[in-house]
């Protein structure tokens, strides 16, 4: 406890350098903008900014990336409340009551409660992260390849279950991600695989380019070629931002419950922000004495979900920082940001790079304060961003995307990969395929292959021996239980259909 | 129809990957080789994508009723423009090719008039050229300039 606090104070001293403060401000500003503007997702925005971080040092670069991630959660609520248009998937549920409040002239109160809830949940989530990540890192030092393989598999199985509407489609996307991850030189034997004589494929696919394609180009097509609703943005004055005493009182419980829900769901793989906000909303509706007011402008319907998605973004950092395993696309993008700067997150991150680890965590506390400052008084400015015509903004985003892809390796191949995968992602998303499992599959592919092969060598080729190890065995049994419960539903469906067919 | 095409594409891709993966040695469980994981995921992907493809062919796919709301003409133009951008990127250089990409895409996006698209295109291409070439030292192609 004492050493954690001392390290955190050291982190603050690192974070207060001009370079790091500027990186933090840049990150939260871009994050808020990403959250405000529909059509630019958080992972896509991080991928776009990856090339811009090449000239930066590791600590400010990671501070900036983290700022984009949690900043987007703040910004998403602004458009949900003011124009009934969620900037981020995690803010979809905020539209219901937030926009109803705006229609009743309480937009300012909804915005301020959302910002206060986000700040409280973000800070409490960070306290959890500050103490949980080092503890998990110390524990993870005991992990060998079988344990890493088991955890990665558990993460992918959970992700498949929690993402998208069709489990098989999500699983296929995980496999596609793993397939793409195997292109290039095999790290163990040095053999080139699936390169078909193309020299630029030897280094494999860059995750940044793939993220830009499946999130950036995909969103860009959606905004440019699909009919968009006309946006009418109302004005909110600073003096209208104060919630009244009753609204404050009614928000305390939802904020605290939302924080707890968000933190716990944030530890799970998948779209934690979205899942946590939906769960929080349904919990608030259930515990409310007036559930009939939900959907008509209940402040609890804003306070809970907005707190939950911010707490989730803090908790999602725990597996990344302590195990080096990202289970969601934004944290996978953060991992890429770390690797680009020569840092491998994992159990040894705290001991090998304490400046980066504690600097990053301290920056998130500071970033939360910046966010409340830039979000509340300047809410009108952010809302006015929505007036930027998409047909001017999106071509600019397209240029950043293509330039960023080229800058990754100074290669046209990356631009071709960007275009081909972007087109595929656009059509695949329309037909029920989620891109999050694909992105996570690519990032985890290397860890899975390496740890599986090493685990089999250590355990003399016996999967039974992997199962006999206490930790990896336990994780695998949990994985099998989840897998069994997932498979049981489709099997039951098949039997039910065949029974129906027989009766006909 | 769209779901059949996407599922069919994934099925063919999985078969292609599976065939390619078989050219690498699988090894044994005691000594797994380069083809070990690729072959496992290749067979699994072929199985799942095949099942999904057959379901969509028989009209039982979960997105069978989904209709795309996009403007296919604009989408085709955008993709063609992106292909053209990649082709002219090196011969014409970053500044000119990016100007063309921006200007044409704004016109595809129905931005009215000439002044705004021209000004935005010039300013954006020069600004990004400065950021990437000067500040980040990315060797962007000079082309004919």
Mean pLDDT of chain B: 89
Q: Major sheet of chain B: size, sense and barrel closure?
A: none
Order of helices and strands of chain B: HHHHH
Shape of chain B: flat
| Termini separation of chain A | 67 Å
Number of β-strand runs of chain A: 2
Helix content of chain A: over 70%
Number of helices in the DSSP assignment of chain B: 5
Give the count of helical stretches of chain A.
22
- Beta content of chain B comes to under 5%
Tell me the span between the first and last alpha carbons of chain B: 47 Å
Gross morphology of chain A is globular
Which sheet architecture does the biggest sheet of chain A show?
2 strands, antiparallel
Poorly predicted spans of chain A: none
* Largest interface (CB < 8 Å): A-B, 64 and 73 residues
What does this structure look like?
The complex is a heterodimer of chains A (504) and B (145). By secondary structure, chain A is mainly alpha-helical. Chain A has a domain at 2-141 and 235-410. Chain A has 22 helices and two strands. Chain A has helices at 2-15, 18-36, 42-49, 58-83, 94-103, 107-140, 145-162, 167-181, 207-225, 245-266, 272-287, 300-315, 317-323, 329-340, 349-352, 354-375, 379-385, 390-409, 412-430, 435-458, 463-468, 470-503; strands spanning 184-185, 192-193. Chain A has a two-stranded antiparallel ribbon with strand order 1-2. In chain A, α1 packs across α16, α2 (18-36) runs parallel beside α4 (58-83) and α11 packs antiparallel against α12. Chain A is globular. The model of chain A has no long low-confidence stretch (mean pLDDT 83). Chain B has helices at 2-21, 36-57, 72-92, 94-108, 115-135. Chain B is built from five helices and no strands. The longest helix of chain B has 22 residues, at 36-57. Chain B has two domains: 2-57; 72-135, no CATH class. Chain B is an all-alpha fold and 145 residues long. The radius of gyration of chain B is 23 Å and the shape is flat. The interface between A and B is large, with 64 and 73 residues.
